[in-house]
Specification:
Layout (H helix, E strand, L loop, with lengths): L4 H6 L4 E6 L4 H7 L6 E5 L7 H13 L4 E4 L5 H9 L4 E4 L5 H10 L23 H11 L1 E6 L8 H5 L6 E4 L1 H7 L8 H17 L2 E4 L7 H5 L5 E6 H17 L3
Parallel strand pairs: 1-2, 1-8, 2-3, 3-4, 4-5, 5-6, 6-7, 7-8
Helix pairs in contact: 2-3
Length: about 250
Amino acid sequence: MTQTLKQRLANKEALVGTFVKTPSMMLAEVLSRTNMDLVCLDAEHSPFDRKDIDANIFAYRAGNMPVLVRVPSAAPSQLLNALDCGATGVVVPHVDSLAKAVDIAKVCQYGDGGRGYAGSTRAANYAGNTVAENLQHAANNTVVIAQIEDLAAFDEIEEIAAVDGIDCLFIGMMDLTVALGETSPRAPAVVELAERVCGAAKKTGKAVGIFVPSADDVSFWVERGVRLFLMSSDHSFIKQGANSLVEDVSKHF
């Protein structure tokens, strides 16, 4: 039986995916046919509206590709929309306190004061599942990733990591870089904070993920417990492919 993304995170398996910046259902269909373990729609920094999120999730699900949505904010309506559309899970930016982590974990699951229930959504198989089946599926499959990218988060980083319902901590290297007044994610001060996130995740048994600028950085972070790598983007793939084509053809002139 194929393991879910939630199980693979819990088992600390190596996972490689990318951020998707283009709200294109056709591009989603293409990427779903690659060997990546997952993708993350970047609705925080790219123009994904509700219909775009819905259409792209449809395409990735059709291709059996786990799909996360990095939501614009931790607002319950943003989390609910992504999950009702059938996202495998959410990446929530700027989780900078224990209180926010607790709220996010609650809102992403059904229960008193939690995720609003609708049995007619894609996530609920368009009324094809019973209430009990929907509750169980959400509990067993919904992935909640807290993005750590603010200096304030480090006042409670171990408490945030320990929150039940948070599956993974994702290190926002670039925001930490800017917050520290640095210009490179390889700056010692940035690396030190990222290592603190890894330590908190290890202590609480949580998975940890990261974005790094190059595959050359991967080994360093694997040694520190990182197993989820969301790297590059569809934009980068297009630019790299185009530039590579020009370089290869130009050799013959």
